[in-house]
Amino acid sequence: MQRWRLATVAGAALIATGAFASDSLQDVMKNRGLSQQDLLAAAKTYVPTGKRDEFVTFSSGGQSGQVIVYGVPSMRILKYVAVFTPEPWQGYGYDENSKAVLKQGRIDGKDITWGDTHHPAISETNGEYDGQFLFINDKANPRIAVIDLRDFETKQIVVNPIFKSEHGGTFVSPNTDYIIEAAQYAAPLENKKFYPLEEFNEKYRGGVTYWKFDRKAGRIDEKKSFSLELPPYSQDLSDFGKGPSDGWSFTNSFCSERYVGGIEKGRPPYEAGCSAKDTDYLHVVNWKRAAELVAAGKAKKINGHDVIMMDTAIKEGILFLIPEPKSPHGVDVTPDGKLLVVAGKLDTHVSVYSFEKIQAAIKAGKFESKDPYGIPVIAMKDALHTQVSLGLGPLHTQYDSKSCVAYTSLYVDSQVAKWNYCEGKVLDKISVHYNIGHLMAMEGDSTKPGGKYLVALNKLAIDRFVPVGPLHPQNHQLIDISGDKMQLLYDMPLPLGEPHYAVSIAANKLKPAVRYKVGTDSRTDEKHPGAVKAGEEKTVKKGNKVEVFGTLIRSHITPETIEVEVGDEVTIHLTNLERAQDETHGFTVSTYNTHASIEPGKTVTVKFKADKEGVYPYYCTEFCSALHLEMQGYLLVKPKGWKPTKTNLAAGNYTEADYKATLKKVADTQAVIDSVVAYITSVNYKDFPEVVAMVDDAFDQLGKTKDLKPKHEAAAAKKDWENANLWAEQIWQYQVKTADLGLRAKTFLEQNGAKKVK
Ligand code: CUK
Ligand code: CUA
Question: Which segment of the chain is annotated as a signal peptide (predicted)?
Fold first, then answer.
């Protein structure tokens, strides 16, 4: 009793003096000015060390031309996927294999090294995210990229053969047979000849492209892709039908006035003329039928690409228009595929259209008019399910796991509205900061939305973050949607361009690899012709072409010296021989503007012209082991016809005592290795593939010491203490790498509950 009291008194005294201040939750709240609500939000987003996020988000990187990958709910950034823009860390655009991908995106023979990425889409099976592929569009230069989610690398870029800009992509059909890409600003489709703006209505056209995706090849099949010619209405966002509406697609438009601005000639500007009418047009397309028409040869070839012309589409009954309120933006099909929600930027309403009613009007031939190109127009009242007034500037809609519940972004109000689209009533609203564009719920555009969280992709951050100059970061805000009321949880600044759309998938659906099959060209998924195995490294010289077939393994680049003559064209293929997870090596040569990231198993090529005589160090750019800094070599660019005069490298002054000391170090380190091996083999390490890979690599390293023992012993017999000591030292280097891996394996086993085996 007495002792208890003493302890309490001592504790109180310490708290009073502040010694334990930071240990109490109350004190942290007080010191940092946090409310109960803040703590709740923190607890809902905090992911402790070693734990992982439940969802993975792929956000467009906007003008960065990349994709940003982050976890939900922690909002921790996991990766930037290089897509349309060179990215040095990944070697994207600095090694030959990735340059070949960027080259696919050339237009009119020109490199385009940036992109304006807008809408990522995850591949789907039966309308559900399957986690295999990601697609993303480039609005500025009409292109689509394919990213393989086995390695999160860009594999393909395709250039739209007939558009000059695009926006309404990428969205996938329920089984990812097709990826949609709709034009934005109308232009002549052939783009061979100049047409003045005075011929806008006659010569300028919009359209929508259906890219055929070959899932087995993991690539878009350009030959089997096709487009539909559309009026010059500035086609905007699109979506594919699903369930009952599978086989159909929907594309919005704005500026169906076909207004051409001309402020230079005293004409009112685009913004006035493009929003003058009360309605624009929703394009309704029977794409399955369109694909059949293409197969039946009813398309016209434009720039070598199949295009179904408008008159064919009208005659075959595959294209219809429906008026939609002022300057619509998003069109989003409900998870059950029965309804589509259209938001009009300049209207307070969202309009919910019924696919069933649209079909009934088409079957009955009930059209209110034709547009100037002869396309039948279904009356809005014949297609509407309901209209709901949500607020100012509705843009995009996402769906909840709870039936009939949708979320719509309100750009002007800086709010998210939660509403019921079956009954047409508003359920809740929350303010966001500020001016939200897209919003995204977990798997919220699939047939099985995941609910739980919503991310508001805000256009402005204004006062949310520490100021960093006039260009602010973007603000992605995480919102808890699990209850009746939405709760704001977290602000994430994103400083890499203006993201538009994002998609989020349950993390357990992603199954990325941790290494490549040794010798893989990751950009083609095929065996790299420059790949070699350990011991097969070589340098081949033919005329003025020098080709190096090298390898990388901790902490060694083979070869260590590359000798060329000035003017030679140098090609270096490097294979990473590691099997252990996360053992990436990088490679660069001083001043040759080249860099490669070589993950375990990958083979990468760098190429340059050695145009200036001199000495150029090369090294590994990833801190891969304790001897990382020693992972180095020299490119020697010699004058033509140069002959050596000196044949020996400078020697150190090693003694027998040095040699003996090194041998002692080798014996001590071996004892450490033996104890680690004894631990690893005493537990069920074979049940842990990560550990098996580390153990394999460790024994590889240790195996290399065998050939070295006779070398140092032979040198010692000749009293060549220099070589005796250095070959023994090299044994120690391999031991250090073995021990490094072994200790990591041991830690991994201890932390992951390895069990004793007898
Ligand atoms: S767009 Cu940017 S807010 Cu490109 Cu989908 Cu609507
Ligand atoms: Cu390999 Cu540093």
Answer: 1-21
Check which CATH number belongs to the domain holding 375 and give it.
Answer: 2.130.10.10
Is residue 455 located within the same domain as residue 532?
A: no
Amino acid occupying residue 396: H
Indicate whether residue 211 lines ligand 1 (CB < 6 A). no
Exposure letters 282-311 (e unless 16+ CB within 10 A, then b): bbbbbbbbbbebbeeebbeebeebbbbbbe
Report how many domains make up the chain: 4
Ligand 1 pocket member 437 (CB < 6 A): yes
Beta carbon of 119 within 6 Å of any ligand 1 atom: yes
* pLDDT given for residue 22 in this prediction: 60
Model confidence pLDDT, tens digit, residues 437-449 = 999 999 999 999 9
- 439 touches ligand 1 (CB under 6 Å): no
What is the 313 CA–ligand 2 centroid distance (Å)?
Answer: 59
Index of the ligand 1 atom closest to the CA of residue 396: 6
Q: Which residues of 342-378 are buried (b: 16+ CB within 10 A; e: fewer)?
A: bbbbbbbbbbbbbbebbeebbeeeebeeeeebebbbb
> Is the minimum distance from the CB of 553 to ligand 2 under 6 angstroms?
no
Average pLDDT over residues 183-210: 94
Bridge partners of 240? 249
CATH number at residue 632: 2.60.40.420
Residue 102 lies in a domain: no
Q: Is the pLDDT of residue 572 over 50?
A: yes
Per-residue pLDDT of 245-268, as tens digits, reads 999 999 999 999 898 888 888 888
- Probe residue for ligand 1, chosen from 331, 438, 439, 476 as the CB with the greatest number of ligand atoms within 8 Å: 438
Closest residue CA from atom 4 of ligand 1: 118
- Of the three residues 605, 638, 671, the one that is the final residue of a domain is 638
Mean pLDDT of the chain: 94
Can you tell me which residue has the tokens 């040869």?
297
- pLDDT one-digit tens code per residue, 715-755: 999 999 999 999 999 999 889 888 888 888 998 998 888 99
Domain that holds residue 25: 2-45
